[in-house]
């Protein structure tokens, strides 16, 4: 009986060591710049202030006016997130073919051997431009887009939905493209070699393999957009965030508590619904 071959462990890669060291140095620099005073959080004065603030939040207000504002805020927040996610998904779908390398640059849909260099250069330029556009859309924060749209279409839920849509479109375009790039290329190549057209290869060879991932990414962005709709309400004129900000502004802590509980319940409900749908699609 032969002895088992010993397992040779590779040494810690030097490149990884430098990356870890760089991250540690950046974290230390950030902590130095922030200068957190942890001790101040444990003083009797701070703890008393925490207890006093949270004591004012209980019990939540349940009068007719507060509940009416709550129903309005829930409808506005949910509507902004749904419309924004839907429009953002459309933007992502439009940018996806140009952002995905397997569709525009290489892969079963690209005839690399018979394509002139000029068309290759043009396809690469369009691909890079689409990725740059997606990066710009997702780099600008939600509230910046919201302020721009408020000047264009006026304050309200529509401006918030547009802000969510533009930012989400950039995020989803990159995520959709990455999902397509990770699909097993063999079924698409087999269809292409059998004489299928490019559209049919995409429709039956690439898209079905990425369908679950695309749906999961869209649902996850909806979860995020529920939270962002609330944040936009804090700086806008609609939604649960606005009503909570107004309540805090007039020191009506119990009404603020009511809206805070509603925000938590809405986020948890959307998370549970999204998780359920993702599991069914998996």
The second-level CATH architecture is Orthogonal Bundle
Average the pLDDT over all residues and give the rounded result: 79
Output the number of helix runs: 11
How does the helix and strand content classify structurally? mainly alpha
User: Stretches where pLDDT falls below 50 for ≥5 residues?
Assistant: none
Q: CATH H level: which superfamily? A: MetI-like
Largest sheet: none
Could you explain the architecture of this structure?
The chain has about 280 residues and is mainly alpha-helical. The protein has one domain: MetI-like fold, CATH 1.10.3720.10. It is built from 11 helices and no strands. It has helices at about 15-35, 45-55, 65-100, 100-105, 115-140, 140-155, 155-180, 185-195, 200-235, 240-250, 255-280. The protein is globular, with a radius of gyration of 25 Å. It starts with 13 loop residues before the first helix and ends with a helix.
């Amino acid at each position: 009986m032969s002895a088992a071959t010993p397992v040779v462990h590779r040494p810690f890669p030097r490149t990884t060591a430098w990356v870890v060291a760089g991250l540690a140095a950046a974290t230390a620099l950030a902590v130095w710049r922030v200068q957190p005073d942890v001790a101040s959080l444990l003083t009797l004065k701070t703890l008393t202030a925490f207890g006093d603030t949270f004591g004012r939040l209980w019990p939540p207000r349940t009068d007719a006016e507060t509940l009416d504002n709550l129903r309005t805020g829930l409808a506005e927040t949910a509507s902004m997130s749904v419309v924004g996610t839907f429009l953002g998904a459309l933007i992502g779908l439009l940018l996806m073919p140009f952002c995905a390398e397997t569709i525009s640059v290489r892969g079963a849909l690209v005839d690399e051997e018979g394509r002139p260099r000029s068309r290759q250069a043009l396809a690469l330029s369009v691909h890079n431009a689409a990725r740059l556009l997606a990066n710009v859309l997702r780099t600008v924060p939600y509230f910046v887009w919201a302020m721009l749209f408020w000047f264009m279409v006026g304050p309200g839920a529509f401006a918030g939905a547009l802000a969510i849509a533009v930012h989400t479109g950039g995020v989803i375009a990159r995520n959709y493209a990455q999902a397509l790039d990770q699909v097993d290329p063999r079924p698409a190549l087999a269809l292409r070699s059998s004489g299928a057209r490019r559209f049919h290869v995409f429709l039956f060879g690439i898209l079905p393999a990425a369908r679950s991932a695309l749906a999961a990414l869209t649902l996850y962005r909806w979860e995020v957009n529920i939270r962002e709709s609330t944040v936009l309400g804090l700086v806008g004129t609609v939604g649960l965030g606005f009503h909570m900000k107004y309540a805090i502004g007039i020191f009506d802590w119990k009404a603020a508590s009511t809206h805070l509980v509603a925000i938590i319940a809405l986020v948890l409900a959307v998370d549970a619904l999204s998780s359920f749908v993702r599991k069914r699609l998996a």
